Amino acid sequence: MKEHKTHCDRVVEYLNQFGSITSRDAFVDLGITRLSAVVFDLKHKGYNIDTKFESSKNRWGDTTCYARYSFRKAE
Three-class SS of residue 71? Predict the structure, then answer.
């Protein structure tokens, strides 16, 4: 039987493999539409996740802001 992975499992694997994730990454690569809710759950489970806000232009040339999540670096 195939092992069922949760959204949390998938996001942790993605962060370990790629270093960071955005809502677009989560939707396109993992099929997750509410990344911020998954990050909230991961933080509740004890994961140290940093949030960095970035901006870029959308298809109409307007500036849009979004969050990029990554594991907090050891100090």
Answer: strand
Half-sphere exposure of 9 (CA within 13 A, CB side): 4
Q: What is the pLDDT of residues 27-69, one digit of tens each?
A: 999 999 999 999 999 999 999 999 999 999 999 999 999 999 9
pTM here is: 0.88
Q: Are 49 and 38 in contact (CB under 8 A)?
A: no
For residue 13, what are the CA distances in angstroms to 22, 24, 29, 54, 71?
Answer: 14, 16, 12, 22, 11
The CA distances from residue 24 to 34, 45, 68, 75, in Å, are: 10, 23, 10, 29
Short-list 18, 23, 25, CA closest to 34: 23
